[in-house]
Design a protein that fits this description.
The chain is mainly α and 335 residues long. Helix content is 74%, strand content 1%. Strands 1-2 form a two-stranded antiparallel sheet.
Amino acid sequence: MANTQRITITKFLFLTTLLLVLTLIVALFALSIGSVNISVKDIITSFFNSKNSTVHQIIFDIRLPRILFAFAIGGGLSVAGAVFQAMLLNPLAEPYILGISSGGSFGAVLSFLLGISFWGTQLFAFAGALIVILLVFSLGRRFGEIEPDVLLLSGVMIGAFFAAGILLMTTMLDNSLRMAVLWLIGSLSFASNQTLIYVLPITFITVILLTLNAQKYNVISLGSESAKQLGINTKLVMNETYILTSIMVGSIVSVSGIIGFVGLIIPHISRMILGQDYRLIIPSSFFIGAMFLIIADTIARTIISPSEIPVGAVTALIGAPVFIYLLRKRFNIYK
């Protein structure tokens, strides 16, 4: 049963402020590390220096957009995972489980096959994700209300169908194959000020709206019938949640590809630290997920500097053993 103890505004603000400060510290650390290391003093000074200075250009044209990218994407995927786990009553649910990633990747790989520019790739990727969102939404409802099991199975099957299409198209690629592989693994190398303008507002607005519904997710996590008896309009809440969260995930996939494990493990870490209350899980998942992806991307771009590896590979290498540990700790497996 969800923990619905009294949470004051003071407690909520203290938590979010603490997590924000920790995220800023992690971001400052990430700003200082790269093929060229920059001291904290130089980073602070660069905010007031000429835009023509080398340090200013490294920070504001390369590293800061990428860190903000990781902040929005890591936080957005983590919140999406937390909300889907509540809505589907499944602790293994994650942002891509409903096939959204396969739809977005299908659109992206199709654009590579057609030789379309990067902005066209984003458009194709978002369109592919949107098609899957609408398909799963139409198939996953019964009497106008989302049925978690049907929604889940519909997403898995439609995702498998589009995944097969992706494999077929990759056999036809030549020079664009590397870009397609990067997209399928997940990378933040596509970060720019232009893509930030697109993904940041969608993520922040969606997270705020989902946070406002947090208490309803506490009730829904008890089961749909119990929620109805307690006065929750489950049809409205679940439909709105699915559409909002899926659009956010679709926008993320369209600019970063598939970055796995973030939305799966971060909500579980938040629960271990703060309990089962979604009024705390959602904001904490956002900031912890942001910090996790910033750290993972810092590793990805520095471990074989000046080259880099896809951040999705790093999140999988870290996420898989962490998730096994969490499973063992929570369910006392192997004991």
